[in-house]
Task: structure prediction
Amino acid sequence: MSASSNPQSTALAPGGEPSDPAVPAAPVTAADPVVERFSVVPLVALSLSVFALCSAEFALIGLLLDVSSDMHVTVATAGQLLSVYAFAVAIGGPVVTVLTARMAPKKLALALLVAFALANVLGALAPTFDTLMAARTIGALTHSTFAAVSILLAIRLSPPGRQASAIAWVAGGLGLATVLGGPLGTVIGEQWGWRATFWTVAGAAVVGVVAIGFLIPGGLGGGQKVLLRAEIGALGTSQVLWAMGITVVSQTGWFLLYSYITPLLRHVTGFSAGVSAGMLFVFGMGGFIGNALGGRFADKSLRGTLAAMLALLAAMLLLIGVGAGRPVPTIAAVLLIGLASGALVPPLQAWALGAAGGGSTLVLAANTSAFNLGNAAGSWTGSRLLGSGTEVTTLAYVGAAIVVLSLIGMLIALRTRPATAASPDGLSA
Result:
């Protein structure tokens, strides 16, 4: 997807009304087959493939104790499997997107999925921790670009007026991965061992290869000249940079604790392994609800939604720090941390893409990278703190302070935005 193949045109919402420029739209090009009807079958294939690929980032969150024991490393060292993955997504995503810009979207999607499947096979067979780390890094490099090319394919598979609905299918796969990747990976790993989680993810990627190969038509664009100056120009917009910066900082705050939530639940709250795995589903339930509510609330007030969810997130991190030894406040805090973090995704994405005019592939990949950079910074910071002897409950207080900083930064950014930037309430100029 490039600036030349994805102009900043106004997309249509599912109801047929013009939507805001936060929704990237790409018309059917002359090289594409004429799309006359909306078919969900290929979109389901894309959505499930995105879910499989993006779930890998969170699949080990509940299995760090198992990996550390099996690989004879500390929990803090095992946590680097999360931070290195997220750093690779954040840094490698935009680079891979630019380097592969001339490939046809379907061929690129298939190549990325095959590489991802092989990386997870390597992870399942890894004899050493270094090999496991290398496998995670290789898989991570496919993440952002696959998400971006899936959105492009979804747009080009849809007739005019249904592109926003198509994007929602792909976004749904990404959202479900964020919400359910950790719980599902934990359940599989607790039942059959952490290596089974890698085999499951690899198998899901193979299913995605078959589904995309048979259900997605060829010739959906690709090969257009990439206008890097326009792409970089959109990425350098002040409000885009502010939005991605707030994304990184806020993600760092809550992911700092979430990366090590299982040790906290097991060793501080006193939950069993099964109950701890169930708590990840509680977090996922909150995130699923939050994703749905965040988009709806952001349509009415992007700034208000961001402020409310960041404040709730900070408060719940404080609550889990204070009440981690008691089951009831811990359960409530985990649920609401999931809700707040999930509700932040739509407005943060809308802010960045709206500020870019909705037409930059690089911003799309960089926006995904911003979330992952925050995840990486959070898990790495948590690893450093735990490695220095810090109590796991202290991570909640540190995370809350970081989230408060992101709230202050957001209020400053949206108060001082230039007149030409996307509006925080309506996403129009």
In short: Residues 1-35, 418-429 have pLDDT under 50 and may be disordered. The chain is about 75% helix and 0% strand. The longest helix spans residues 163-192. The chain has one domain: 40-415.
